[in-house]
């Protein structure tokens, strides 16, 4: 939006829209805010610290952006921030957007470099090329930490306890809080320093100047438009840059998780570059990303390897990674929202209890000051300040267990989200199958007819087919060892040819020593592009032979680029023959290039001119072997009612064969191809379902009218999916609910994605839970990175997610019930004008509750992956029913004990702590102590998501010790224990045994209740739910399809109507 046009402006900045609103300070508002801050003893300042945008709105008035002193930037789906406006501009946008209109030709014009004046101007706009990780001082961290709502509540509680003469308890809580703050400050600063050191990069770079000279500058001084020269022996890229000359072999594992080095080639040149808009995503094969390691840079014809800086600082790929670590995207998970709602419910309960206690204390004629302290004290009892910290315990344990198994997580809150996964998508090559493919053979083409398969490509005679196999690849030499894509390596090895660097321009391919074949020089590479589905090279034979272009890629794509007369009529039949058997098939083609004589001539060629009018040479057939772990894991997921889905760029028939091999599709299940054709002049868009051919010996289960059909699996390619999205939106949930554009909102799917990070970064980012198979510990592509090189990590992550989610529920319920136990205990004692003593509170909160809450989350996940998923909502009948019934038991049990013989009535004219010890206090102390431990056992659920309680040895030992301690305190307390805890000595052994018996009964009732709720009530609820339609779309679709055994309509084209079509953006 233009400055001054309105009070606010909306700007688009991936991945979200932003709204900028201008505000101008008003003196009278500022003075009024300062006055209220003084009157509220600084409370208003604390509120402003928690909500900075509230301060801006309180002190300022909305105004046009041109007059603004402050702006509030609302980033939808991210976070709200505010910032003082330091400089006026004509429009608001991210700095990186300033150069988004660059064409490839514009970038090539920057090869001469920037003048000093241009450099200075750009430096003012872009700032230094630094990724500054803020490292706050200890004082600043202390202020931020202390002003956290949790510690504000703690300070309020400590002041209240001191005024109520609870000195020991207040002192212990203060010491623990101080230690906690100290450790938090140390860890926060340590992590910030570690991250700062990791991203700190200041190296010397050679920069070209328009005068023709070069200068060595610090990488901090680089700005977009600078032309840098890369050394040949390796280099850590300090910015994002577009490669102009030469080739680079780059290790990008830090960004994508892809462990295979990637070949980078120069940016397109010539006429095609004039209108070609440069995009780091579209031109990633020509872009060097910040933080990646150049293993080898190779120049041609004596030139330097040159690149133009395109992005610096936080706008780079590495900057994005660091930003995602510093400012993670807020996780929208119902569990956390429900937790906050429940805390509000506890606060309302505290208010009711406060009103009751005030009435009781007034009735007992307690002094006004004491009434206020007692009422406020009740609030500190029922709202557990340690609740947020306790709920993260299970996640921390799960994160550490995953790390021990080689799975790293940079977003711990997503671990709980793993417990709700319904569907898992898998990349094929490198994930379900081995990285490398074995060459099965070559199918040559002669006179437009396919010849029989030749299993040894090295036996081919010298000619275009052999030369295409030996040159059309991205293999490079690093320290005399060939490196590159596994497919390219296998293809090259099958010919026996080796890579050499004998030519001054390009690189050379040498035949085996025993063969008399000419060396072939590679003059130009057009790298593989997943969107184009092909790659090509320009090669030169020795002597006066003309240069030739060789192309390799997806058969359908390569065939579309060939002259029609060179493509045999049985092309599709032959392709289907091999792909249906699970082979990966690549087509090879070539064409002579008579005008190209030199390396310089090759650099002037456009990709479109090279990859057109080709002559088909034949097929390269490769066998892609399933990883040994794939089939068992897929079977395990299906058994657990988790849908596995394959997402691949390979041929659809090959993908179907792999799906059948790994039992993603069972032998008797239907496999249906979905073919959608876009509308043309005479006919609307059409959709057709075709049943796949079955292998010999396999029979489909018969579908009878009114019967249940076997599961139906659909296979469709990207083009068909786009047509379905645009012209058949009503059928989209039936055809592909997991890929529905509004999946999260409409289909209610929680989707996981597992890939190797090579060509699936977008899918890994888009999924709710992305798992990248990589050697790196962190990847920008996904929150989870697994060093386990196969999909065994998927059930592991899901099991840990379920365990962590159940643990979070258990700890939450325990902390809530612990607060209710103490709340009920205090209210009972208030009724008779007494209370718990200082050290009794300390004993419950530190010795029992803290020990239990920390250790109960240590229980590991169950070994088996069951069909059930844990509850994802706290506001449910099951959870609320458990809490309410357990609370009822807590209220009933203390009312059972009868007065013991020699009972001395309480002097109600004296308040606590002056009337301590007394019998009532001692009885309530003993009963509530047992209740804390009973609840800990009841809330520590094992099967089906966690291991049994006894496998958590530290927790089990703690329970045995604490139960033993409580029995000892109840039955035979030692003298110093009675004195320390202010307990009344009870001489009647029968009464003491009655208390232990009550505790035992309470234990069995509470444990039985939780078990009954988990099994009996859950099954009862499931039966009720069957009568009601599910709220989740995918479940309703599944039920609808179950009742339609004849769907989809096979071989009956469905035509789109105008009403069905929608605009896809």
TrEMBL record:
GO terms for molecular function: ATP binding; ATP hydrolysis activity; ATPase-coupled monoatomic cation transmembrane transporter activity; metal ion binding; P-type ion transporter activity; polyamine transmembrane transporter activity. Its main location: membrane. It is a multi-pass membrane protein. It is found in: Membrane. It comes from the Eukaryota. Belongs to the cation transport ATPase (P-type) (TC 3.A.3) family. Type V subfamily. This is ATPase cation transporting 13A2. The lineage of its organism: Eukaryota, Metazoa, Chordata, Craniata, Vertebrata.
